[in-house]
């Protein structure tokens, strides 16, 4: 009872809205809940790219059977191999049982030693031999010891049925295994993302950046990158939208999202008025409950199949005021990539204000957007030196005037 009372205190919204989904109750905004204690951010996509979503209470399970091929391909390897063995074994046993029934009904079992009797299948003297003949027929092994005779029309019809169904089973099961083996999921293991994302100035603008790379020499063809911001929100009408997805522009309009991924590349998102990070400052960033999901897509050069690699960054993995360490160096006749420094960053001078505040300061002071504290101090120093020079000039002019007056008085 104590635990249930604590749970009621921690999520009082569940009392007023019991029909809300569990995920919506967990992700309600802080101002709705009375308890404002920090909680661990639950990932939507894990660092290895797997989606952290489980489908529950699926009642229409028959829909999985309507696409049985995809269902089998999506199964784990141990279940896939088990089904593979079971399908062949069941078909061999099923047709072996029918071959044995035909021989039993015809009376072939009672005339095994009778040379004048023409059986349906020669040398079929029991269920085991019927099972072996079923395997030989479906797999087209044909050892030649057991042979169907022309005096058994029902056996001929069964032979045709088993041959056709056996070809269908072979095509289906071998196709499943081939597709599962050739899936490009493992290719995504060699597409790497930096462990952290960084925010710093680039070309006078505040940018969010992360790095991607390909460890293989066979490249990803037609590679493209996109990013999504996953953050719960509440509309002005009071509707709560859990895990709302917002596009993050990484060069869609300029073509920078289409990559030539031969060496590691730094993907940059300019924080402007259309950016969801427009009003987020360095102090506010750790308080935000958000997740950035990055998706890299392309075709595998060796197989031509589409490959997708995913990763994500939560607020604790976004470093403000850092840049990535360069990894590309020019050697004798080639470029070398040092993947030991792929995830390394270094600190750089970056304003702690949000992009919106920087734009307002720039518009007020008519300064470039790359305004920083050091540049501001330098401008103050320049103004002070100019004032000192003016004061010196004025003093020299005054001294000159006094000297002239003294000379005139002497004369």
TrEMBL record:
Record bears the keyword Secreted: no
Main location: membrane
Annotated site residues (Role in the control of polyamine-mediated channel gating and in the blocking by intracellular magnesium) in this chain: 170
Potassium channel inwardly rectifying transmembrane domain segment(s): 45-184
InterPro entries: Ig_E-set, IRK_C, K_chnl_inward-rec_Kir, K_chnl_inward-rec_Kir3.2, K_chnl_inward-rec_Kir_cyto, Kir_TM
Keywords: Ion channel, Ion transport, Membrane, Phosphoprotein, Potassium, Potassium transport, Transmembrane, Transmembrane helix, Transport, Voltage-gated channel
Membrane topology: Multi-pass membrane protein
SUPFAM superfamilies (alphabetical): E set domains, Voltage-gated potassium channels
Reactions listed under catalytic activity: K(+)(in) = K(+)(out)
Location of region: Disordered: 1-31, 378-411
Transmembrane segments: 81-105, 155-179
Keyword Oxidoreductase recorded: no
GO cellular component terms given for this protein: monoatomic ion channel complex; plasma membrane
Cellular compartments annotated: Membrane
BP GO annotations: potassium ion import across plasma membrane; regulation of monoatomic ion transmembrane transport
GO molecular function, one term: G-protein activated inward rectifier potassium channel activity
Occurrences of domain Inward rectifier potassium channel C-terminal (ranges): 191-360
Similarity field: Belongs to the inward rectifier-type potassium channel (TC 1.A.2.1) family. KCNJ6 subfamily.
Protein name: G protein-activated inward rectifier potassium channel 2
Organism: Aotus nancymaae
Gene behind the chain: KCNJ6
